[in-house]
Amino acid sequence: MMLGNGVFAVCQWGLLALLTRLESKATVGEYVLALTVTTPIMALCLLQLRLVQATDSAREFAFPDYLGLRLLAIGVALLAIVFVVGLKQYDRRTNGVIFAVFSIAFVDALHDVVYGLLQQREKMQWIARSLLLRGCGAWLCFAILLLIGGGLQWALVAMMVCRLAVLLIFDLRNVRAALALHLPSERHAAANPAAWRDMVPRFALSPLRRLFLCALPLGLVMMLIVLGSNLPRFAIEEFAGKEALGVFGAVGYLSVAGTIVIGALGESASARLARSYARGERREFLELVGKMSGIAVGLGVAGVILAVVAHRPLLAWLYGPAYADHGEILIWLMVAAGIGYLGSMLGYAVTAARFFRAQMPLFALIVAVSAIGSWWLVPAHGLFGAAWVLVIIAAVQVAGLFLLLAWAMRLQSPAPDNGETPSQLPTT
Q: Relative to the CA of 356, which of 76, 329, 363, 365 has its CA 20 to 30 Å away?
């Protein structure tokens, strides 16, 4: 998983690196703006079904239920993006980039529900192979279209086509195999024609309603997380323009190096954390959370040290001399990222305990802090102000999630003496 996430993240960064080398800062800013517009909407509408699915240790819902709700949510997301684009009245070129980014998000959302099933069954190697194919193939298509002069919009469309091909050719076979793992071998499972029937989306009202109500708090939480981190970017675009937004997005993307490890650990451990918590295995749960948190702290410290020591040459080498003067911004962004790594690990633990609704007040507070800080610090301090806002909200996130985790441990039912598994706790 670390290899898969690593290659995928490097390829995602490679898109941005190509843009900084081949296109203007304004074009980079258009791409970052498109991500800023689409990401909060997708985060809400997609409801974080992957985490709900991965931590569904009782198998309360079937894969067709998750797929059906995901398709309905994508339709709602499209309507919301159309509304936002019409409200903001961006120019035609920016609108084209926004909808191209949404087309990629559409395909990624289908991949996401597939990964949720594989993560639930702990078939992480299948996810890793898919990430390798998606990352490398999409980067190659993007690079070819950009180099031959196709422009940003068509390069993004080429990415979408490549990722859709990976979904249809590679991932659907893995889904069929995962749904038939009761057979004697994975080889027989993959060849089982009956498994195809379990891959058809289901739109039955009762299970969709229950699944929606279960996932909605986590979807709102993720939307608040993304909105809180994106509000400084909206402020940069409003007060400093697209070029400044492009610089901030390119410099800030370097923190993705740490998320490679964080994502791999969190995704791989989610199902196991959920089982340990549901069974009342307090010691095992806390030991795993402690190890994950220790790695997060180590990554954060290493990232800050690297930024302090080599910020100018690093940015010059990666993006060109035009970005080297923004090295001090990188230091603050790595501080925010380092704190955020720890917050992500605590978030995986709280979510594994299925404390979904309890996270909403915390992240609503974070959005409020981000909004106040963005409209206060960004006009006065520019990119530095935006970076400081990210540091502040990351610290609030860590403190709040630590308190929620302590609350979850206090409410956990102890493991029964007879070795039986306690009934699953209700979603909180």
A: 76
Q: First CA to last CA across the chain, in angstroms?
A: 29
pTM of the model: 0.70
CB 243 within 8 A of CB 26: yes
Alpha carbon distances (Å) from 358 to 135, 347, 354, 399, 408: 35, 12, 9, 14, 10
Pair 13, 256: CB distance under 8 Å = yes
CA geometry: angle 316, 320, 324, nearest 5 deg? 45
CA distance 218 to 327: 35
Greatest Cα pair distance in the chain: 68
Closest by CA to 333, choosing from 312, 313, 307, 367, is: 307
Among 329, 339, 334, residue whose Cα is nearest residue 392: 339
Between CA 132 and CA 129 the distance in angstroms is 5
Measured distance CA(107)–CA(162) in Å, rounded: 10
Question: Do residues 102 and 38 lie in contact, with contact meaning Cβ atoms separated by under 8 Å?
Answer: yes
The vertex-123 CA angle with 169 and 6, nearest 5°, equals: 80
Q: How far apart are CA 36 and CA 228, in angstroms?
A: 11
- pLDDT tens, 21-54? 888 878 888 888 888 888 888 888 888 788 778 7
List Cβ neighbours of 371 (8 Å cut-off, separation of 6 or more).
Answer: 231
Give the start-to-end residue ranges of the domains of the chain: 2-411
Tens-place pLDDT, residues 85-109:
888 778 888 888 999 999 999 999 9
The span from the CA of 140 to the CA of 156, in Å, is: 11
Cβ neighbours for 158, distance < 8 A, ≥ 6 positions apart: 141, 142, 144, 145, 150
